[in-house]
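Section 3.1: Structural characterization of target chains.
Under the original work plan, the team committed to producing a structural model for every single-chain target entering the pipeline before any wet-lab resources were allocated. The record below documents one such target. The sequence was received from the expression subgroup and is listed exactly as submitted; it comprises 178 residues.
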Amino acid sequence: MDWKQLGSAVAKLGLPLLGAALPIPGGAAIGTALAQAIGSTSADPQDILTALTANADTQLKAKQFEDTHKETMLKLQLDYQAQIYQQEVADRASARTMQVGTKSYTLPVLAYTIVGSFIAMVGSTLLGYSHVDSVLAGTLVGYLSAKAEQVIAFYFGSSKGSEDKNVLLANSVPVGKQ
């Protein structure tokens, strides 16, 4: 078991902030502190999970740990997300700078081909000229759609809010499992 799996299991136990903080850089330090707080024999993720599922007392101690260290975990998460966002911005900036510097026709031709193919595929499907019946056809449509989205994001930017929504959904606890 690794820190990511432990984070998912801890979030399912009703400790969402702690579960979200464990898989990020610095999460191992939080895991070590958590192990001490709940009286686990070691800071190994499997041992922590075993201790947490052993009885309600350890879960109460973990909840108290989460409440006590809430600010630290939030700061770690925000710093990590800001770091990832800055890397994405730098990546897009370098790709755009490369395009301006090289004046290559490859990127615009590829972009027009992908977006044009996507528009043609959608148009022909909506007008009834083609049918997307098989799994393979559906996979190809999904792939082409994703690539067209990447082209649009490259030229016009992408939505940081959409990415944040994906992260929140991935770290949330399903309704009824709380």
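The CA atoms of residues 119 and 148 lie 9 Å apart.
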